[in-house]
Design a protein that fits this description.
This protein is α+β, with helices and mostly antiparallel strands. The chain has twelve helices and 15 strands. Strand 6 and strand 7 form a beta hairpin.
């Protein structure tokens, strides 16, 4: 019985269905049924390529099973940079309570739809100032400084313009409480190819989706991206970090993407050009609770990080050695009383110490692997919606762009994309379920 249940759940978790605004992201520029033609086209495009830098926003947030209000303001998560990035990746954990009905029952997409609606409204907010007149997109030498200036508010508002710039959802996928949602600028949409998802459950029985990962991959021009949204094993006891390392090993080994018919697309996480792992990784600080709380009060992050389990794994471990993480200069993101700045277990509003203590820790993390990725900022946001604080990371990513495509008139691309939209007559507020990478031709 247990084996049969595991097989059923594995089939459901293995679904490659995902939500997207348009069904056109398989290969709008190169889609064809003629394999020889595709092979020749791909070869000629790959013969000559240039490198451009794109700006990527990544965030992770454990919601603690709390449904968002329609009027929830996520501007703190996006800050004033919400219109200055090319790609946005939002990762959530526990968007629904991890109870038996949610873990074993049919998946309810109502909450993920709410989050996608909040994201869409925030990214496409018409009144938001976003593009500085002094910034030229092709000026790679100044792109990183431009990004810092915008984020730090060093560019005056009067120097900015507020014309609309739409963002589209290219992939949104939920597995129980894990949700990953990827958005790109509308003018980049025609260059997104071969989007795909892969789910791995590592929870109860080693396969249920209360813990695990949802990974997404796609090609932007000629560069492959893979984002892995994870919720690893919990536990603050000595040795619990081994369960988290085991989860990572399972995710790396069991995650698999289609390799494609002609193009030799990367199938495994570590085969991609740019890989970012985000989520509630649940790594703790290997110190007594009293010592940890004392160092947190002193804001002695260096002493705490010397005993941080993830940092130790990155430096000398087996599963994540060689990965990178930005410098942490913010307070531990877990665990807080709801609607409070007080850590759980501390005296709070006259209450005695909580019976179930949780030592403060940096559970929510973003790490990366691959050449050509550079982190510009690593910070947390201050929303008090859940017992975790959101974490965000800002990157520049080098992307190979074919010389052939760069020489195409931009009018051709815009007309082609408008044709795609017109064929399906999908409004910006609707979503489309893409099944198994189904392709189409105009």
């Amino acid at each position: 019985m247990t084996r049969k249940l595991a097989e059923i759940l594995n089939r459901r978790l293995g679904s490659r269905n995902f939500i997207a605004d348009y069904p056109s992201y398989t290969d709008p520029l190169l889609s064809t049924n003629n394999d020889d033609q595709l092979s020749l086209s791909t070869k000629s495009i790959n013969d000559h390529s240039d490198t451009q830098k794109y700006k990527v926003f990544v965030s992770t947030w454990n919601i603690g099973g709390i449904a968002p209000d329609e009027g929830l303001n996520i501007e703190d998560l996006l800050e004033t940079c919400s219109k200055s990035f090319d790609i946005y990746v939002f990762g959530f954990q526990e968007i629904v309570p991890l109870n038996a009905s949610n873990v074993l029952g049919s998946e309810d997409s109502k909450i993920s739809t709410k989050w996608n609606s909040l994201i869409r409204n925030a990214l496409n907010k018409r009144t938001h100032h976003y593009c500085c007149k002094d910034i030229e997109r092709d000026d790679d030498d100044n792109i990183e400084q431009d990004l810092k200036n915008i984020c730090q508010g060093n560019i005056p508002a009067q120097q900015c313009k507020s014309a609309p710039q739409d963002f589209h959802c290219i992939i949104s996928k939920q597995m129980v409480g894990i949700l990953i949602s990827v958005w790109v600028r509308s003018d980049l949409s025609p260059f997104i190819r071969h989007p795909c998802v892969s789910c791995v459950g590592c929870g109860i029985m080693g396969c249920l989706g209360n813990k695990g990962s949802v990974s997404v991959r796609f090609l932007l021009h000629e560069t492959s991206f893979c984002f892995v949204c994870s919720h690893l094993a919990s536990g603050g006891k000595e040795g619990d970090e081994k369960h988290r390392n085991s989860n990572v090993a399972e995710i790396f080994s069991r995650t698999s993407f289609p390799k494609g018919t002609i193009l030799n697309l990367p199938r495994k996480i570590l085969d991609h050009d740019h890989v970012i792992l985000l989520g509630d990784l649940n790594y703790r600080i290997s110190l007594p609770e009293e010592t940890t709380r004392l160092l947190v009060e002193k804001r002695d992050w260096d002493s705490l990080l010397e005993n941080d389990q993830l940092k130790m794994e990155l430096e000398s471990g087996q599963m994540l050695r060689g990965w990178h993480e930005g410098t942490i200069k913010f307070a531990p993101t877990y665990k807080y009383f709801l609607n409070s700045d007080e850590y759980y277990g501390c005296c709070y509003h006259g209450m005695k110490k909580a019976a179930k203590k949780r030592s403060p820790a940096w559970c929510d993390r973003i790490i990366w692997l691959g050449n050509g990725l550079k982190q510009i900022e690593y910070a947390r946001s201050e929303s008090k919606l859940s017992d975790h604080r959101p974490v965000k990371a800002l990157f520049t990513a080098e992307v190979k762009v074919s010389s052939a495509l760069k020489s195409f008139p931009s009018l051709f691309l815009s007309e082609r994309f408008e044709q795609i939209k017109n064929v399906f007559e999908i409004s910006p507020t609707n979503e489309f379920v893409c099944k198994k990478q189904s392709s189409f031709r105009l």
